[in-house]
Design a protein that fits this description.
This protein is α/β, with parallel strands linked by helices. It has helices spanning 13-18, 20-29, 31-50, 57-72, 98-108, 128-138, 149-161, 182-188, 204-210, 237-246, 274-279, 305-313, 317-320, 324-337, 340-346, 348-353, 357-374, 414-426, 451-458; strands spanning 3-4, 55-56, 80-81, 116-117, 122-123, 142-146, 165-169, 175-176, 180-181, 192-196, 218-221, 251-256, 284-288, 299-303, 378-390, 393-408, 432-433, 435-437, 440-444. Helix content is 42%, strand content 19%. The structure holds pyridoxal-5'-phosphate.
């Protein structure tokens, strides 16, 4: 063993590159990455040796291979979502159906008619690819796709209400995590928010009083992630539409999650559908592609053609246009929606939300013993939990589910042991994400569909 206790004893860059380990790394990952990594680890080693640490040559080789792996491994990678939140924003929201994945692969590989009209041989419109199905499924005259729903709201307000006033109920001035706050979006869109009513109660007459010569439109925002209970009143979409139309103003509804199907027919809580919102009189409805719709990240605006055309003419549109992969995936997801009988099997979001409780329970019981085998010092049982829909959809409705509940056996400090265990699960080749609450680590198995991969992956679990 070569012991290195002085900077002069550190190997040269060439020595490490010509070491059999270095050569192997170069073969696999290319010289450039390996040379850079050698320099990085040598600089680090030099600092350590100067500080008085003695290091082994072998540990340099190990550090080199780790540094190379760190550089080449993608930071963004798949994880197993056992948090119990089906549409988890931090975990990438909706899982896509196979047909959408295939559609993306098909257009990713080569050229496509993204903006090319095959009929005329002239320039085409990328928005056409999803518009027909969106109209068919929602009953809208026209529709437009942008990168996400925040963009959809921004584009709508900027196109229709710049330098004008938009009355919104005080009970609907929401913040949806971090950057999306309705008042801020209004300001960025260049319009003036007129707060109407009170936090808990807003009446039709409040809107009537707020409407003036500078009013551009009325807006209704779906209060996606909270609920006000008790002495409350909000203005129904129908009434708001009636007031707006009486003053010759459009009504814009930000539905947030926005579903195209009747969730109650899948034994799920009711959520206003896009068709219902349009039917109630909204002139434009905005919603996300990757929430209850179960598709790719996108924002969808559906409604009156003249308004959609105004949005399309806004220069901002160019900065928000969806890419071909999004459009391909979205089309496939919309296509599935035209066949409701297949939807529940083929759309992962709906399949997971409506998954049979006894199937979840059987799965939890089956894997509990395997997980127990790998978790010495812990007790693993299958226990009832409530899953959440997530992404602000139906915030107060939860779904009965079953989790692996892991607690610490014996008298160790449970908190730190659970934190360590959760970290060990996150360190697996496919990281497994659960949540710690009430003195236990919980893995809700509602979203676990690939049992074999989970078990195989688990073999790598190391508790230290
Ligand atoms: C989620 C949500 C948004 C933002 O949608 P993104 O697709 O995340 O940009 C806007 N409005 C409401 C009501 C929402 O629930």
């Amino acid at each position: 063993m070569t012991r290195i206790d002085k900077p002069e004893k550190l190997p040269s860059v060439d020595r490490l590159l010509n070491d059999p380990n270095g050569v192997e790394l170069i073969c696999e990952f290319g010289a450039s990455v390996v040379i850079r990594s050698v320099k990085t680890i040598l600089a680090r080693a030099r600092a350590q040796v100067v500080a008085g640490t003695t290091i082994e040559y072998a540990s340099l080789l190990k550090a080199l291979s780790e540094e190379v792996m760190h550089t080449v491994t993608p930071s963004l990678r798949p994880v197993i979502n056992l948090t119990g939140t089906v549409l988890h924003t931090n975990l990438g929201r909706a899982a896509l159906p196979e047909s959408a994945i295939k559609a993306m692969i098909d257009v990713a590989r080569g050229a496509s008619n993204l903006e090319y009209d095959l009929e005329t041989g002239k320039r085409g419109d990328r928005h056409k690819h999803a518009e027909d199905l969106l109209c068919y499924l929602t009953g809208a005259d026209a529709a437009l796709v942008v990168n996400n729903n925040a963009a959809a709201v921004l584009l709508t307000l900027n196109s229709l209400a710049k330098r004008k006033e938009v009355p919104v109920s005080r009970g609907e001035l929401i913040e949806i995590g971090g950057a999306f706050r309705m008042p801020d979006i209004m300001a960025q869109a260049g319009c003036k928010l007129i707060e109407v009513g009170t936090t808990n109660r807003t009446h039709g007459k409040d809107f009537e009083l707020a409407i003036g010569a500078r009013t551009a439109l009325l807006m209704k925002v779906h209060t996606s992630n909270f609920e006000i209970k008790g002495f409350t009143k909000s203005v129904s979409e129908q009434l708001l539409a009636e007031i707006a139309h009486r003053h010759n103003l459009p009504l814009v509804t930000d539905l947030g999650s926005g579903t195209l199907i009747d969730l109650e027919s899948h034994q799920l809580p009711h959520e206003t559908t896009v068709t219902e919102a349009l039917g109630a009189g909204a002139d434009l409805v905005t919603f996300s592609g990757d929430k209850l719709l179960g598709g790719p990240q996108a924002g969808i605006i559906a409604g009156r053609r003249d308004l959609i055309n105004k949005l399309k003419r806004n220069p901002m549109m160019r900065a928000m246009r969806p890419d071909k992969l999004t459009l391909a995936a979205l089309h496939a997801v919309l296509r599935l929606h035209t066949d409701p009988s297949r939807l529940v099997m083929e759309l992962p979001t709906l399949r997971l939300l409506s998954r049979d409780h006894s199937e979840i329970a059987r799965l939890a019981t089956r894997i509990a013993a395997t997980v127990q085998d790998k978790c010495e010092g812990f007790e693993v049982i299958a226990a009832p939990v409530q899953s959440q829909i997530g992404s602000g959809a139906l915030p107060s409705d939860t779904l009965a589910s079953v989790a692996l509940k892991i607690t610490v056996s014996g008298k160790r400090r449970p908190g730190s042991a659970l934190i360590k265990l959760a970290k060990a699960f996150r360190n697996l080749p496919v990281p497994v994400i659960g949540r710690i609450t009430d003195g236990a680590l919980w893995f809700d198995v509602r979203c676990l569909e690939d049992e074999c991969t989970f078990i195989e992956n688990l073999q790598e679990l190391t508790l230290k």
